[in-house]
Design goal:
single chain, 178 residues, alpha+beta, 11-stranded mixed β-sheet, 3 helices, 34% strand
């Protein structure tokens, strides 16, 4: 199995590896938060930052347009969805996009493999209930353009937020920290 330890090698791998694949991902992302509580805007947020750690299965190198059209057929609708051109970044491969010198992995997320957990700025685990009052309400993403009942979810993750990525039996990416 190929062992990859840096982003450059991962980008090169996906430039060559074009087959759709199921992957296992471990990602650390920043939780967006307000400086004050959402409800009253009077309570100061005691957290400098919160990181969300997730472990999930996903699919890479997938044709998004094709996937949406298959969902449309499953729902008895016309197979006439056309994906819009990406509004940001430059596609490097089916799996990788580049923007401003940063690389992003495009994927369709699947099931969670372990519980999601959160850490504060000191690396201490915190419960979502401890900071949820500072999290801005999100806008519904919806499936408007897809015109389906069950939206095909498509996500991008900055490569530097991925701390583990495995295509079973083929490749393992664990970034080396300096």
């Amino acid at each position: 199995m190929l062992k990859i330890t840096n982003e450059k090698e991962l980008v090169e791998f996906f430039n060559k590896y074009k087959s759709p694949a199921k992957v296992e991902v471990v990602a650390v992302t920043s939780q967006k938060m307000n400086k004050k509580d959402v409800a009253t805007k009077t309570e100061a947020n005691p957290f400098t930052s919160i990181s969300k750690i997730t472990n999930f299965e996903a699919e890479v190198n997938v044709d998004y347009e094709d996937r949406v059209n298959h969902q449309r057929i499953a729902e008895g609708k016309e197979m006439d969805f056309e994906a819009a051109n990406a509004r940001w970044g430059t596609p490097i491969s089916k799996a990788i996009t580049e923007k401003d010198g940063k690389f992003y992995l495009k994927l369709i997320p699947g099931i969670r493999l372990n519980d999601t957990y959160y850490q504060d700025q000191d690396g201490k685990r915190v419960l979502q209930e401890e900071f949820i009052r500072f999290v801005p309400t999100s806008k519904p993403s919806g499936s408007g353009r897809q015109e389906v009942d069950q939206a095909v979810v498509f996500r991008t993750y900055k490569l530097d937020s991925i701390i583990g990525l495995t295509i079973p039996g083929i490749m393992e990416y664990i970034p080396q920290t300096i």
